[in-house]
From TrEMBL:
It holds the Pfam family ABC_tran. Keywords: Amino-acid transport, ATP-binding, Cell membrane, Membrane, Nucleotide-binding, Translocase, Transport. This is ATP-binding cassette domain-containing protein. Residues 4-228 form the ABC transporter domain. It comes from Paramicrobacterium chengjingii. PROSITE patterns: ABC_TRANSPORTER_1 (PS00211), ABC_TRANSPORTER_2 (PS50893). It comes from the Bacteria. GO terms for molecular function: ATP binding.
Length: 228
């Protein structure tokens, strides 16, 4: 099977800084892979590469078997629709309701799938909050909205950038459970950037350790270390 993403000797340079330094990494379909590293280690750059918005200075990237660099703008946009993003700061539109926020990616594609939006509202446990605004939600609820919004285009790949860093311990566990459920129920491949080792132990199959742009090691997470 074609891997979701394959990086071959990928270097991303900004002047003399190598944000990524000769990284080889294959992301398999249906896995949850953690990405760990200090500030400046290259985590955001790696997400940018996987989201096909950044390109290697040298080396090669295949996303779903194709090199995003070689795609037309239109084809790259289509590829990127199959990639969902979840952020630390939720990035919800404050003047739109929960339902409208979730439906937004569809709206931008001039699509409307109210049934899917209703199902995802239920899936993330926010059916009763559909008409509220983000300011009326807790942090965990906001992240649930953001996850539903990311899932509404049925992405094969979900990129999560520190999704629990703004949340307390209990809410963190709930959000990690939701991500694990998402993989189980929809087969979504998940990349989880985090500085929380507990998160890796809880739901990841593997963890990639970045140091100054280099992939230091890849740890297999023992199933026994995972709670589920
Ligand atoms: P992380 O997400 O792990 O904090 P980043 O991928 O943001 O790391 O950055 C890796 C390195 O690349 C850092 O040294 C950062 O300063 C540098 N870098 C990232 N993006 C740019 C850019 N657009 N211009 C210049 N330097 C950059
Ligand atoms: P459908 O009934 O549309 O063929 P499924 O039976 O695979 O889809 O899944 C049932 C519901 O789960 C869908 O209607 C949708 O709400 C949700 N769903 C399915 N696949 C995904 C996905 N990849 N990401 C997010 N939600 C999904």
């Amino acid at each position: 099977a074609t891997p979701v993403a394959a990086l071959d000797a990928v270097t991303v340079s900004y002047g003399s800084t190598k944000a990524l330094d000769n990284v080889d990494l294959t992301i398999e379909r249906g896995e949850i892979i953690g990405v760990i590293g200090e500030s400046g280690a290259g985590k955001s750059t790696l997400l940018g590469i996987l989201d096909a918005v950044e390109h290697p200075t040298t080396g090669r990237v295949l996303i779903e078997g194709t090199d995003p660099k070689e795609l037309s703008g239109r084809a790259r946009r289509q590829l990127r629709r199959r990639i969902g993003m979840v952020f630390q700061g939720f990035n919800l539109l404050s003047n739109r309701t929960v339902r409208q926020n979730i439906a937004l990616p569809l709206k931008l594609q001039r699509r409307s799938e109210p049934t899917l939006v209703t199902e995802l509202l239920d899936y993330v446990g926010l059916s009763d909050h559909a008409d509220r605004y983000p300011a009326q939600l807790s942090g965990g609820q906001k992240q649930r909205v953001a996850i539903a919004r990311a899932l509404v285009t049925r992405p094969g790949l979900l990129l999560c950038d520190e999704p629990t860093s703004a949340l307390d311990t209990r809410t963190t566990a709930d959000i990690l459970d939701l991500l694990a459920d998402t993989r189980r129920d929809f087969g979504t491949t998940i990349v989880l950037v985090t500085h929380e080792l507990d998160a890796v132990g809880a739901i990841c199959d593997r963890a990639a350790i970045l140091e100054q742009g280099a992939l230091k090691s890849i740890l297999a997470v023992a199933p026994s270390a995972r709670e589920r």
